[in-house]
Amino acid sequence: MISGRHQRLSGRKVLVLVGPTASGKTAVALLMAGRLNAEILSADSRQIYRSLDIGTAKPTRSERESVPHHFVDLIDPEYPFNAGEFGRQGRKVIDEIFGRKRVPLVVGGSGLYLRGLIDGFFEGPGADQSLREELYGRLHEIGAEGLLEDLRLVDPAAASRMLPTNTRRIIRALEIVTLTGKPISELQKEKITINFYPVFAGLEWDRKKLYRRIDERVDRMIDDGLVDEVFTLKRKGYTPKYNALQTTGYAEVFEFIDGKISFEEMVSLIKRNTRRYAKRQMTWFRPDGRIRWFKLENETQFPGTAEEIITYFHASKGN
Q: Which of 2, 138, 195, 285 is packed most tightly, with the most Cβ within 10 A?
């Protein structure tokens, strides 16, 4: 990660609401948005894709009409999108929101997307398709261990942080050094200036209560038609080979549709894998001392918590 240099201007404060999946981020954000005259930036690596609605717990159309949302339904599932691109585009959107005299409200649980936006990191040149095909050909020829050795010769620092199984990262690092003439490990040291001040708020639940909420939400997703949503995706030609669909909720339903697991196994796996994802999210967020956590016991606390966060946001100096 590259630590951004925040130009902490009191007039350019951004509220960042984080928390694990099913913690109530969307509901609390909507309660705050009207009071703050805010526009919402979704920092969710899957809500950005069209046609992935139920399985991503995407805000409803009416919710998006009530408050301007950004980075929801932006691209189709076959197109790649990453945290670096989100950071670059997101900072531009934040500038535009400030230009409209409104408050940017970033909402999400995708830690890498948030890091790309708030702290910034090296994005590198765009993909070179012919070079990438050549590198994948070399991977097929000499294997992952051989490709990692290629990287070790030109960028030992980057290679030392990768395993042979990280073939996409290895190929990207080789692509960058070929295109720029500089190792990615050196380029990543370059700083990105962040010209706003983030105020972090997090929604925190007792683990058992959060897991119960996750199980209940999965049941609602099934009742709302998650399986039909995946059938529709499949009819459109989408398969789990796309990165967007290698996602909890979609991967398991594809396995069910393909006859690899039973309906009951599918539901059980979605619940288990979502709980595991929530645990990983909290492991990511907890070390970040910038986040002030707001404890929740039930949904009746959402309005009060929204008010507490607004008060905290206004009290933050931004300098």
A: 285
* Amino acid at position 20, single letter: P
Residue 302: alpha-carbon gap to chain centroid: 23
Rounded Cα distance between 274 and 216, Å, is 12
Beta bridge partners of 202: 18, 293
- Model confidence at 40: pLDDT above 70: yes
Q: How far is CA 59 from CA 30, 37, 44, 199, 211, in A?
A: 10, 18, 11, 23, 21
Per the DSSP assignment, residues forming a β-bridge with 295 are: 204
Average pLDDT value for residue range 121-144: 83
pLDDT band of 260, cuts 50, 70, 90: very high
The residue written with tokens 């990983």 in the block is 280
Q: How far apart are CA 249 and CA 47, in angstroms?
A: 13
Burial of residue 254 (CB within 10 Å: 0-12, 13-18, 19+) is buried
pLDDT over 70, % of the chain: 93
What is the number of residues in the chain? 319
Dmax of the chain from CA atoms? Answer: 60
Place of tokens 């997101």: 90
Strands 38-42 and 69-70: parallel
| Four-residue CA torsion sign, 86, 29, 210, 48 | negative
20 vs 31: CA distance, rounded Å? 18
> What would the pLDDT profile of 269-283 be if each residue is shown by its tens digit?
999 999 999 999 999
With H, G, I as helix, E, B as strand and everything else as coil, classify residue 217: helix
Task: Assess contact for 297 and 206: CB atoms under 8 A.
Answer: yes
Query: Token pair for residue 178?
Result: 């070929």
Q: Which residues contact 152 (CB under 8 A, 6 or more apart)?
A: 159, 160
Rounded CA-CA distance 93/258 in Å is: 40
